Amino acid sequence: MRKLRLAVIGAGAIGRTHIALARDHALFELVAIVDGSAPAQTLAAQIGVPYHTDVAAMLSAEKPDAVIVATPNATHADIGVMCLAADVHVLVEKPITDTLADARRLCAAADAAGKVLLVGHQRRYNGILRAARGIVQSGRLGQLVSATGMATFLKPDPYFDMAWRRRQGGGPILINLIHDIDLLRFLMGEIDSVQAASANAVRGFEVEDTAAVILRFKSGALATMTVSDSTTAPWNWDLAAGESAHYPRQDVNTHFISGTHGSVTLPRLEVWEYRSDRGWHQPLTQERIALHDTNPYAEQLRHFDAVIRGQEEPVCSGVDAMRSLQAVLAIHETAASGEAVQIGD
């Protein structure tokens, strides 16, 4: 089976994760790195991969079958549309774009080209989340009632040296909370409405550093989420789930999903149920479901190949990812207005 020719556009932190996986890959041949920075040029030279600063020039010179777009959010649509128009399959990092108009434009371009458009909500490929989804879909928890989640952590001061991270759209709602919104959608279904409050009291930047959110799902279930990048705390997926060696792993839970007949915690995958009679005076049992660690980025890349070859259906299509973006943009809107925002179909 021929390897697919793959280019990575954007060689920042997440781009380098994709580059490292694509090197010597069984399914892909890494044929280009596109970036405008000296470190990216150095990396390309070190690993012997063609380096480009211009996407159009790379498409013409290298003729990839597929690209991974790991550039700033506002550039996703233009780059993705250009690649799709060149008959190239696209995996774009989350969020799909930073506006709904651009997300629709990107999805329309994929439909017109008849090419694959995947969005990198990598948690969906984590064995922990897939096991939790299986538990929910089995009916073991009964009717879903509520969920509580936390994404509380500390970004170091140098992180904000880039000006866009101090401005609207560069804060933890769009950059971080969108992961948790997508996680809850993956487990609990579509969101009906949101209400939120945000604050920038710690750093005083234009962008928020903290937000609290209430979500109402179409099923009638409710959820609350807290996100802050200015706290000393372990309660966030990156530290708790062990997806990346870049973060010191903490053995804590970050999400709690509750139903009429049981509950499950994440990422520890503890299932709580009554032994027989149900009621708060009765003893509860706890079963912890053990899983081997998985690399969701590696699974995502394998899946990208399988979707391109027509062997699997997309785990996170452009349209699916657009719904998570829509919810996050609604959170920004309600945080500014104080009024609940309905999520359209």
Automatic annotation (TrEMBL):
Q: Which residues form the Gfo/Idh/MocA-like oxidoreductase N-terminal domain?
A: 5-121
Which residues are in the GFO/IDH/MocA-like oxidoreductase domain?
130-263
Matching entries from SUPFAM superfamilies are given as: Glyceraldehyde-3-phosphate dehydrogenase-like, C-terminal domain, NAD(P)-binding Rossmann-fold domains
Transmembrane spans: none
What are the recorded GO MF terms, alphabetically? nucleotide binding
Pfam families, alphabetized:
GFO_IDH_MocA, GFO_IDH_MocA_C3
Q: What is this protein called?
A: Oxidoreductase
